[in-house]
Write a structure and sequence with these properties.
The protein is α+β, with helices and mostly antiparallel strands and 415 residues long. Helix content is 52%, strand content 16%. Helix 2 packs antiparallel against helix 10, helix 10 packs parallel to helix 13 and helix 12 packs antiparallel against helix 13. It starts with a helix and ends with a helix.
């Protein structure tokens, strides 16, 4: 019987292969979307790693994460540098990195900080920020730039740039009286770091010496920068600070101390919690992709059943030969179910093979270019459950043509 079954498949090889390809492509798309979604979610939650809390002015936790980590939106307030120094003295604090925001370069965010930013801030799990070219030097006139920004704007080492006051490149907003020299270009991280420029806090204060209330009062172009006292370049305020604690166990104890700080209203945000909340808001898009993937699979399964049912009429002679050789109506029904099972198994095998090859060769590219973290897994428990569901649906769907062929042959036997 099985020899005849495979010969029957061989005689209808072309439509059989088409259905297998169609179903395999649908399964591959579904699993690919799931893997990319999981990788994106993981990378999203690891846009900033190694940071236990983010300190900023009291307000929305999501807003603080958006402008400090993803460089989206603008801060509504700052915190004083004295507050920053007080926080750094709390016994639970291992390290603390300040950032000041407010300027931009051709639409890209300028982040004023110190070199500890490159040493302490991690990405994509526990990867360090590293250089593609140059150095991490952040003097008063140095700028370190992200890889995407360098590529799009064709910036080179030692090239001079002039940043803009605020986020608009309007006339009169440019800090054109003091230029920054590119000292380093970062390697691709797949995070917002790739689209940022980093200057020192002293450099940030220097370009704002002639500014007040968002307006330039005088130019520092002819100033002797070396003669400016260092205390005049000390920041009076910062936008936020990234904090690493000596022990993660003390996180909630530390955040309580921040809430109870009496000098000014500040808050401490735990990045993991805020990012999970943010993902729950934007992750709804994934449901739409899941729906489309399952819809395509359902269409493929309908096409499979349609192929089997339409072939029944053309296989009358084949069925008569089977019956003449002693096959019962049950045996013929089994052959139909077996054909659907074979289509499902072959499709699943092909889709897993495609995914394995793609994942093996494209994992590094996805991580470096898009920041999507993927690991080489032949199959995960969730994927196994999904594939089992698809296989069972295909098997159950084949009962329709199986019942039809059983009843038809049973009636012919009775007659």
């Amino acid at each position: 019987m099985y020899r005849l079954f495979f010969k029957s498949i061989y005689s209808r090889l072309f439509p059989f292969v088409l259905i297998v390809i169609c179903l395999a492509a649908s399964i591959t798309m579904l699993l690919s979307i799931e893997r990319v979604k999981d990788g994106t979610k993981e990378s999203f939650s690891q846009s900033i790693s190694g940071v236990d809390t983010i300190i900023g002015p009291r307000g929305s936790a999501l807003e603080l994460v958006l402008y400090s980590v993803f460089h989206v939106g603008n801060p509504t307030n700052n915190i004083t540098y004295k507050t920053f120094e007080d926080i750094s003295k709390i016994k639970e604090v291992d390290w603390i990195v300040p950032i000041a925001l407010g300027d931009s370069y051709k639409g890209y965010r300028v982040i004023a900080t110190n070199t500890d930013y490159f040493k302490k801030i991690k990405h994509s799990g526990n990867k360090e920020i590293s250089l593609s070219k140059g150095s991490f030097q952040l003097g008063t006139n140095n700028v370190v730039i992200g890889s995407e920004l360098a590529k799009k704007l064709n910036l080179k080492i030692n090239q001079e740039i002039f940043i803009t006051h605020g986020q608009n490149d309007k006339i009169g907003n440019s800090h054109d009286d003091y230029g920054f020299q590119v000292s380093g270009i970062l390697k691709t991280t797949g995070t917002p770091i790739d689209k940022a420029l980093f200057i020192s806090l002293e450099g940030y204060e220097l370009v704002h010496l002639g500014w007040k209330s968002g307006r330039k009062l005088f130019s520092i172009k002819d100033f002797d920068i070396a003669s400016i006292p260092k205390e005049n370049l000390k920041s009076s305020t910062i936008t936020a600070a990234f904090v690493g604690l000596k022990s993660k166990i003390t996180t909630f104890k530390f955040t309580k101390k921040i809430r109870d700080y009496k000098e000014e209203p500040i808050s401490a945000v735990i990045p993991g919690i805020a990012l999970a909340e943010l993902w729950s808001i934007i992750g709804i898009v994934d449901k739409g992709f899941d729906f489309l993937s399952w819809l395509i699979i359902v269409i493929s399964l309908i096409a499979m059943i349609t192929l089997i049912m339409t072939s029944l009429e053309s296989r009358k002679r084949e069925m008569m030969i089977y019956r003449a050789n002693g096959a019962s109506p049950v045996d013929l029904s089994k052959m139909v179910i077996l054909e659907a099972a074979l289509i499902g198994l072959v499709s699943i095998f092909i889709s897993l093979s495609i995914l394995a090859v793609f994942n093996y060769f494209a994992a590094d590219y996805l991580n470096n270019v898009f920041g999507v973290s993927t690991q080489f897994n032949l199959i995960t428990p969730d994927e196994a459950l999904t594939l089992l569901t698809i296989f069972m649906i295909a098997l159950i769907s084949s009962f329709i043509p199986a019942i039809i062929i059983y009843r038809k042959n049973l009636n012919q036997s009775l007659s």
